[in-house]
Structure formats: C-alpha cells, structure tokens
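Chain A, query sequence.
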Amino acid sequence: MSATDPKNSSRVGILIMAHGGGTTWNNMVKEAAKPLTETYPVEYAWGMANFVSLQKAVKNLEEKSVDQIIVIPFFISKHSPILRQAEFLLGVRDELADQPMPVMHYTDEFKEISGIELDDSHFMHNMIFPPTLKQIEIHTPVQFTDALDDHPIVADILRRRILSLSEDPANETVVLAAHGPNGEEDNTGWVQSMESLAAQVQQKQSDEGLPVFRNILALTVRDDAPEAIHEQARQYLRAVVRQGNISGEVIVIPVFLSPGGREKSVAQRLEGLDFKWSGETLLPDDQLSTFLINSVNKSLN
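Chain A, predicted structure.
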C-alpha cells in the first residue's frame, strides 16, 4: 500500500515518535515508514519525548518548508507520560501533566539548547533529571494522530502471532503481555486497550467459524515501575500462566513494537513454567505501514 498524494501533500511533514532501541529496532520502524517517505518528508524522534530529538526533527522538517507537521506516536499505548510530555513540548498542551522524563540521550545538547538551569542534583547514572521543561521552538501547526492502542490492525497482527503457535484454541489460554507504564491510572487504560484487542481476536475467530480461545488475558510487566510494583506484576504473570496450565496449554504473546530484548524479559520471568512462545513482536509486519499511512490520511481528511 502506498501513501496517497493529496493536494499540498508536499508541504506536509511527518514526525514519527518511537521509543527507539538498537539499530535493528530503529531500522524496523524506518522500514515500516518507507511508503510515507515516498510522498512526504519524514523525520524521527527517538526516546521518551526527548527534548533534543524532537527539536532536531522539527527543525529538519521546517527547513524543508513544511506548513503542517503530523506527529505519529508509534507507541503501543497512548496511556503514557511520554505522549503527554510530547504534547506539551510540541505546544498541544499548555502545561506539563507529569514530572519531566529523564534525558538518557543527547545530554550535552540538552544542557546547551534547553536553557534550563541544572546542578549536580539533576544528574544520576549518566542521565539528566530536569526540574522542568520548556516547549521547543516550533513555527508550524502540529497535529497528533493516535497511538496503536486497540487498532484493528494490531488485533490482526496479534491474532496471526497467536495462530502460528495454536493447535487447539478451545483448550488454550492466551496471555498478551506488554511493557506497561508506572502509574496505576495509565496501567488501567493500557490494559483496557489490550482487553479490547483480545475481544477483537475472539470475535474474528467466531466470524470465521473458528473456535474461540479458552481465554485471552491482558497484562503488563511494568519493568520500569518501583520494585514492589514490578515484583507484583511478575508474580501475577507467573500465576496466570500456572493457572492456565491447569486445564490446557498457555500461549504467551509479547505486545511490543519492535524486537530488541525487552520482549525477551517476559519469557525470562516465566522460567520453569510451561508455555508456548515465539517472541515475535508487532514489527516486522507490512500492516504497520498501512497503519502509518492511514494515520496520515485520516489527519489530512
């Protein structure tokens, strides 16, 4: 599927936000966005709403004389302080909704261009913990699209990942495991979106006259949360898999965007338990190119 070419599309710039990882991780995102690059100038902002990465991407797009910037948050869930911070930095929000995210990359450039007073108390483990943030310099209207959340394309990809491991759906418990946020309210929203994905998978099975799965459960592993929350999530995941094995088999599917190691931690914390696992993430999959294209077209229409 290729990107459409509406009137004035050459003046539209695309900014794809993604968490980022190693070279393979990032290249899979770029590969998914390749159809967009044939029609629009595309820039990437890696990291957790990183001030410098976003500023550089906006500057590059504005140097190409765009008169509109469409921001695609290529994240699993909208329920995240990362997206709220990005909305503030790009002028969509008037105030920060959360504490500023730590700056893990571009630390020297952050000190140079942010204009924020920093002392030794704001540095820890080669990261900056800024006391506040300023909105970036931007002269172009910005429009955000939706994160992946419970989009039907995500449901379809997950269903194919499940079916590649499934042998007897009626006797199989499927566990959808995502990284998840730290905050409880965000976590509730994240899990609810995944439960919607689970319902879509079951409905598709039924619509095609195929047996539905015995159960599809959604949870988050919350790797970055405080230790007590992280350990509670670990124990819950193990309990779900143990219980699923009592009267059937268990399939565990990581709901992560791109492979890079974080998804492997899901399997590692299930050591000693029986479960089916391929470790396949959402990328690579051609349908995510369709998701990106549709996101842009929806914004333009």
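The two ends are 18 Å apart (CA to CA). The chain has two domains: 9-147+286-300, 152-268.
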